[in-house]
Hints:
The chain contains 20 helices and twelve strands. By secondary structure, it is α/β, with parallel strands linked by helices.
Amino acid sequence: MAGSVEVxxxxxxxxxxxxxxxxxxIPENRPLSIARLLVVLARYLPYYKPFLSEIILxxxxxxxxxxxxxxxxxxxxRLILDVAFPRGDVTLLMxxxxxxxxxxxxxxxxxxxxxATVGSHLRVRILGALGAKFYRNMLGLNMRFHRNTSVGExxxxxxxxxxxxxxxxxxxLPLIVQYAMQFVVTIVAMCLxxxxxxxVATLGVPxxxxxxxxxxxxxxxIDLWQRVTGQKVTARLEESLSAPEVVYSHGARxxxxxxxxxxxxxxxxxxxxxxxxxxxxxxxxxxTGLPAIxxxxxxxxxxxxxxxxxxxxxxxxxxxxxxxxxxxxxxxILINNYQTLRLRMVVAxxxxxxxxxxxxxxxxxxxxTLSPFVGRIEFRDVSFSYVPGKPxxxxxxxxxxxxGRIALVGPSGIGKSTxxxxxxxxxxxxxxxxxxxxxxxxxxxxxxxxxxxxxVLQEPILFDGTIRDNVLYGAEPSPENFENxxxxxxLDEMVExxxxxxxxxxxxxxDLSLGEKQRISLARCIARDPRLLLLDEPISLLDPASGQSxxxxxxxxxxxxxxxxxxxxxxxxxDVDKIIVLKDGVVTEEGTHDQLMEREGLxxxxxxxxxxxxKPGEELP
Length: 621
């Protein structure tokens, strides 16, 4: 690949599209039945198994102890009024008062400090286990999913959704069990004193459940709206901040600010309505609101009648009044947590849908390995489309011999990069087959296969870390690999200008030129010691001097390896073994540079337009 390099530097405009609707999003109108709720919860039970001791403590021991301690204060109050006062027994009075205070203190320590500590620990551990599986699964989904789902939405799912589910599993479910037990114990204690006020007071419970259900249906829509608008705000931030050079160069700063404010304003309205509904719920359903007023009124009327009739003592009446408040607290918390739990089912199902997603590349259980990897690639009548009915490739066939160098040439958008994606098995062809060393690509162990491939993209991608970290990304971190990579790419000469050398931090490559970033990218490719090199327009964005320098490094790196090039710079492709010309998704020509120049076909037209500056069919002067 000799000769001068003529490169036209073009501004790469990365569009900032609107966030697509995810195919995995749970429909808002899916009915939330109790049966479905239980089915979904059952899917999450395995995450409790490693934490059995914490679960028993949170759902059995602490609730039982707390329920008993909660009853001590009303019972002590009853004994003070019915026994200690009538007898004038100061010692008994002091003992009962101290017992009540001790019970309150012990209950608070157990139910606040201990429960919060254990619950938070459980939540964090569940988040770690579920998050690791979710992230591993996310990286296992195919390129169609990643192509159709914005980064903002994926981050939202890995962050906000997982936190919600961990809180549900580690805090909400144990709370429901705890307060259900406390409610039952309190009602039993009240019935032992006198069952009649209890029956009358609990007649209103179904009414509060109906009110809560109505509130929940409205609240659920607002919560879903808040989540969708929140995802849009996240996506807007991610998309605009990830491409500041595009925003600035297109004079779109003001427009992006307006679009962000618009998304943020919508989210603010949704968030305001969300918290307004919470305040309404607190008054209508929470124990300190309307339920407390109604229940206290009922107990007061019924208790007063029974006291006048001599069927209830003052101590029993006071104990019942205190116990009804103790019963209302679990009812309110149960209603709130039950409705919140149903609301979290939307998130829970969204996560399960992603974990169960069929949008993943079918991987053979016992894939074949290539040892040694020779590097012969054969396309046999391959057709492919990203969107059904809109083919990108039609019956493409060609062969890359081991150690050979081929170039894919043609107008933009005719499937050259798609061929690279198929070689990497980011997608499977709709029809036809791709053979690697005589084995169908779909039968190979994909990890072992990709370990033999190195790729250099048109626009280099660097990760946060040092230059050394980026060079050794995905490679065996041996001194030999590192030294070979920097020597072949001449990265050592570039790094001499940096005070920290290879330990220089690279924050997405923002402080590096395109040529410097591309040199690091090439070194990273070489450090893998690949047998197959894929080079997709590696110099198209560089100035002539940097482009020639990178070409020289590529020339050294491809020795003894199979290499596939994509390039619009036809001058740089004169020495490749074979050039494959594509147009409209089909191979129109194939041969060496000299052979194609003699055929007067598409390649000759492209050459004349680029090198001789002539239009197709125009005669030389």
